[in-house]
Structures are given as C-alpha cells and as structure tokens.
# Entry
Amino acid sequence: LTLRAPTGAGRIRMQDGMARVATWEGIVRREALLAIFGLKQGTFRFVTAFQGGDTTPMVEDLDVNQVLIEAARLEDELEKRREHLPATGAPLRATGETADVLDRSAELHDLPMEQVLGLVQESPGIRVFDLLKKVQRAPQVIRLAAAHLVGKRDR
# Structure
C-alpha cells in the first residue's frame, strides 16, 4: 500500500495478513504506522504483487489494531490540549524551570519531551515544522509533546 499526502509519502507492506514494513518520510515501523493513521487527507494505491526495486527488509510483524488504537488515543490527547498546540510555523522558546515542564502523567510517559525540550533549548526559535524533521517520531507524537510542554508552561 503506497500513500501520498500533502505532508509526505509512505508505504505499508503486508505479508500473510500482517504489516511487515511501514515507512513514512524517514520514519519506520510503529511510528510510521502512527503517522499514517494520523493523516487527514491523501491518496493511496494498493499493489497486489511485489514490485522490483523495493529492497527494504521485512523485519517485524506490526500489530495494526494496537497501533490504530494508539493513534486514536493520540488524537484524543491532542484534542484535549488543542489550545496549547503551537502553530506549525510558530517559533518556540524555552522558559522557566525544565523540571516543572517535564513532569508528566502516566498516559504521556512515552512522549519525547526531553528531546523536544532539548532542541528548543539548543535552537531558540525552532518551529514545530523543524521538530517534525529532526525527531524521528510520528508527527502527532511530536505535536502532543510540544502541546504538553506549552501547557505546563502556561499553568
């Protein structure tokens, strides 16, 4: 399955009913599936037979149902923090104590907050758009980390 969207391109390769390879704009495996499941628009093409030129090894079985549920949870969490979500092109700057903003609830334990905060501290004025290119995670994961950090700062 190949996918194209305004934000990029990717693919999911299936074998024996299991997703064996997933890629999205340099992101691979589970994170790529999360990115794909978070798409709001785009097109797809289903190819029924292996076409030459694809040398990506099929390395794992990806539980599509589990990742789909995770993608829905991420969307719910993003919606809860929508007012804290910075615009994709807005410059970000770190302010305040880092220990305060890194405090997180159990449901957000897997967010790359240290990495996102580190990049914001290293490069004041970095944009969410830049973070999406630098952090090899699904876009909605990065946006949620940024929204959480901004929300903690605003309290």
About this structure: The helical segments are 29-37, 64-80, 98-102, 113-122, 128-134, 139-154.
